[in-house]
Structure formats: C-alpha cells, structure tokens
Specification:
The protein has about 300 residues and is an all-alpha fold. The chain has helices at about 5-15, 40-45, 65-80, 90-100, 100-115, 140-145, 150-175, 180-195, 200-215, 220-225, 230-240, 250-265, 270-280; strands at about 120, 125-130. It has a two-stranded antiparallel ribbon.
C-alpha cells in the first residue's frame, strides 16, 4: 500500500476529538424580549434536545467550535421549516435556549446571513429569509436539505447537477495532461481499492469525494472549478445510489479506473462516457438518504 493510501485510511478511522472545556464563556444577562418578537416555544422545542447545550457536545459542523455547532442547529431548523420565513430570531432567545454567549450568537447569525438564510436590518432585527434567497449551492445548505423534508428534491437536483457537470469536466480534463493530478487520481483509485478490500466505507467515500473534486479542478475551467465543493457535498450526503451502487463495489472501482485511463491517453470521449456510466442510477437501487453524518 502506498504511503498516501495508508495515511488517508488511518486519518479516516480517527474519530473527531471533542471540544476542550468551554471555560468561562462571555455570558451576559438576557433581557426579556418583547412578546411580539419572541420566537415561539414550539419552534425551539423542535430542536434536538441533545443540542440544547451547544458547548457541551463534541465539535460539529464545518465551522467547529461553539458557533459552528450553533450554525448547524439553527441552519437545520430553518431549512426544515421549523423556523419559517420571516420568523424573527431574537439573540437573547437563542442565547438562553442554547446556553451560549452573546459572541457565539452574533457570529452564528453572521454565518447564516452569509448563506442567505437570515437577514439583519436596523429597527427590524434578524429574520428568516424565504427559500428563494438561500444560497442553495452552499455545501452546508445542501447537507441540511438532504436530511430535511426536501430530501427527495435535493437528491434529484444533485443528481441532475452532477450529470451536467462531471461528464463535461472529464472531457475537458482529458486535454490537460498534468502528471501530478493524474498521479493523484490514480492514488485515489488505489486508496478506494484498499478500502473496499478492508470493508472501510469511510475511507472509500473520502477518496471518492477527492477523486471527483480533482476531476473538476483539472478541467481547466475556473467556473466549473468553483462547483467542485458542490460535488463533494453531493457525494457526502447522497451515499452510494448517486454512483449507481448501494455500497462500494468492484464495478464502481473499475469505472473510476477507466476514467483515469481515458484521461491518461487524452481520450475525452472515453472519459466522458466513463463518467456517465459511473453516474448512472440503477432503478433497482432504493433511494434512501443515510442518517446525518457525524462531523
């Protein structure tokens, strides 16, 4: 096994470490918000009770730390509809409910605003924005939708988007003979092979995600390159059925190898065809979105 394969497989098995003790947070007295602006108790009750004390859980979400975990929880609640459009989000309410500091609440709302989920205006406060304003290409929102009420629509949309992006990227990549990327793609296939032999689905999926991300990045189209994160998110939340198999198997591995071979010979047509074959979804595969992954 190559050094890269060993390193990646070892890293994939390592569990994420928990947060260090939060210590004395920058807490503050929470004033009672006007009744008209308070978030209804029923909305907060929809939250996972285990997430009520954000600072006492292991690190979650891409942001890590307390505000990353709060972003995850609020984002899921907004995307699921538990906090509907135009719902006011009162910082004091949020701080009390999740037992976090003013700073954590402020940072979390800023992240959600950048994703288009909320808006903050003077004399109006922070409110949830309608779906039409969300950045639906944001990897976090892709994930939250995939595990919410819109899971079926999200899967279909991701499949359609990948079918549009990746075959084109493979055709373009065949004309960019970069030895370093070619070697990296080969390494990912090797890692996937070792992982499959050992029944290590986590390492397989991570190598698979990097393979498809590299494929788009080497296409030589900067606009396509910006979509590589979307494909990675799609692979993370969609599981096996996106690649046409319920679990890592020999057919999937062989198809990845054919893509690498086509790129090595500069055969754009073969590379495109191999990707389309890989993305074919067999009708007998049950389209079930797996449970949310642990970060």
């Amino acid at each position: 096994m190559s050094t890269l394969a060993h390193t990646m497989m070892t890293a994939a098995r390592s569990a994420d470490s928990g947060l260090a003790g939060p210590g004395e947070l920058d807490r503050y007295p929470y004033a009672e918000a006007p009744a008209a602006d308070r978030v209804g108790v029923s909305a907060w009750d929809a939250a996972d009770p285990e997430l009520g004390r954000v600072g006492r859980r292991a690190a979650g979400s891409r942001g890590r730390g307390l505000h990353g975990q709060l972003v995850q929880q609020l984002g899921q609640m907004i995307v699921s509809g538990d906090l509907g459009a135009d719902r006011p989000l009162v910082p004091e309410e949020i701080g009390q409910r999740f037992e976090v500091s003013r700073t954590v609440v402020r940072e979390s709302l800023r992240v959600l605003e950048a994703k288009g989920l909320v808006s903050a205006r003077p004399n109006v406060g922070t409110r949830v924005r309608p779906v039409s304003d969300w950045n639906l290409l944001d990897p976090d929102i892709i994930e939250w939708r995939a595990f919410g009420p819109q899971r079926d629509d999200q899967r279909r949309e991701l499949n359609e988007l990948r079918w549009t992006i990746e075959p084109l990227a493979a055709r373009l990549a065949a004309g960019h003979g970069r030895d370093d990327v070619q070697q990296r793609l080969s390494d990912m296939v090797e890692i996937m092979g070792h992982a499959m032999a050992q029944g290590d689905a986590l390492t397989f999926s991570r190598a698979d995600a990097e393979f498809h991300s590299l494929l788009i990045q080497v296409a030589g189209n900067r606009m396509l390159e910006h979509l590589s994160g979307i494909v990675s998110a799609a692979l993370q939340v969609s599981g096996g059925p996106v690649t046409g198999c319920e679990r890592p198997n020999e057919a999937s591995l062989v198809q990845h190898g054919r893509i690498v071979d086509a790129l090595a010979t500069g055969d754009g047509t073969a590379a495109e065809a191999a990707v389309r074959q890989l993305l074919t979804i067999h009708p007998e595969v049950e389209r079930v979105v797996p449970a949310p992954r642990e970060h």
